[in-house]
Design a protein that fits this description.
It is built from two helices and 42 strands. A hairpin with a 3-residue loop joins β41 and β42. The longest helix has 7 residues.
Length: about 575
Amino acid sequence: MTTPIKWTITDWEGGTIQFIETSFIRIYNTQDSSSLPNVDNMDYLVVVTPDDNFNIDRENFSYVVDKFPHLTKTSDGVYEGTVESGKEVRFLKKVGATPAENVYITPGERNRTLSFRRDVAYSSMTVGGDNSGYWSGIVKGTTVKVDTKATGSMAVQFGEENNEASSIYVVGTNSDWTAPSMSNYDFYQDHRILSTIDGMYYGSIEAKKDENGAVSFRFFTDLKGWTDEASLGSNPMDFYKMPSEVGTDYTLYNKGLGNFCFNNYDGDRIYILLDLVNETVSFYSSPLDKELGPKRDLPTISLVSGNSISTDSYFNHTSDKDELVLHSRTLPFSTEEAEWMGSYLLEPADPQAKLELNKAGIARLKLKAKDGISTTPGTGISLASLPLGSYDAKIVNNNTELIITDSNKFFIVGEPTGNKELNIETAESFGNYTINAYYGTVVYIPAGKFDFSFGTFDHPVWGGIEREVEWKDGAFNFMENGIYGLSGARYCHFTEPAWQGGWVLINQYALVDLAKVDMYANKVTDNKSVKLDKKSRRRPDIFRSCRYTQRRKWTGAALFLCKK
């Protein structure tokens, strides 16, 4: 037999007793509706969750005020407080005589998942009655700030921005190559560089030498172990050592496991200035005058293609309706919110300017900033003037220029191009030595100049593993020589000591000496027409693609041979 439970309520003045799911009861005192706060003078907001599955009205409002969390009014129209982790929330601004007359602050009629970045998320809000939406995605207890007078996505702020200077960890001889893992977190507090007030990273390391007298190191953005997930280096190849000197700018290879190496450094410390935006690093022998401060938000590049939006520096351009939307900072709200497209925009400085590739596969566009929060979309950058294909995009020079490069472009770097450095400014001068990786290209290699590497913008350095070319039936097949296509070939240094000069076909799969395999083309002469010989289709060991291109006028830009 169940023992009855007796409650005694002293000073009972009348009210409502409500049974909920027979498991518990709530007791509310009645309250005169004339004493309820209204929308203008309420000095707090009540935090409401879906778990509060009973109607909030005048009869139970005193219980709500007593038991529910509050956001306290801190200034005119601004309320602040905390919310519980794992909860969906909205805020009660005004209680009516009936639930239908309540006024809530919500994200709208649907739930909205918060997108936290740097421990903070922002959202716009809707104020009104009978709004069913809740904010969700609160993964931990967090502070909340609601500004009822604000417009746009900054009206509601969840969490507080972490303004501590962020770190880049330096791993190498300075740290005795200690594993960059969280178990060594305390150790690596003494082996890192910190963000500066202008968004770069600066610091110094001990110039500790290995048994060969060299100082070598690379960088990690997080302590996740020996993985390329968080690494920044000189090269994607593990343990590659780039000879480095002070006073020189070097390219940072994202997810790079290669090291920067000082072979003859005499100082006690090496001073480092690292720029994540432009992906460069510079080294110095003496301190710089740099002020440390909070990390600057990085710009973002978003491709809008139909109903699909992807945010990345690498994109596939598949339609003339594609466009890029650029922001000067990393947005704290998702692309599902209306404000994302109109906030912190970077737009063309000249509204009439178009993206056009030069012969090195580079397009450049000057930008201007449109700062602030707005739901009005700005000017997206049309890609209609670019050929369909794959591209890399980068925002440089303090957010004033967009640079787009054809990701299928390779360049011959070395003797044929005068040992020039490959970069954005010099690439067009490589003209006749620009390789289209997708179609293949014929280039003329002068006698004694068969000494080169394949450079790209993410790997512009001349060098790599030396490979002396041995022709087989007039071809050097990459796969048969343990090289994974042209992408793998860019880490090789090709030589041919007995080269007498001539035309070479280069595509994804092979180098072909056209003088030795005259069956592949009747004639190869600059500015002359080229006719493909049908015999070429019987050479599947060299050409594995299944389409070909003929040009009416020979430009040395596209010769594509294939099997049936």
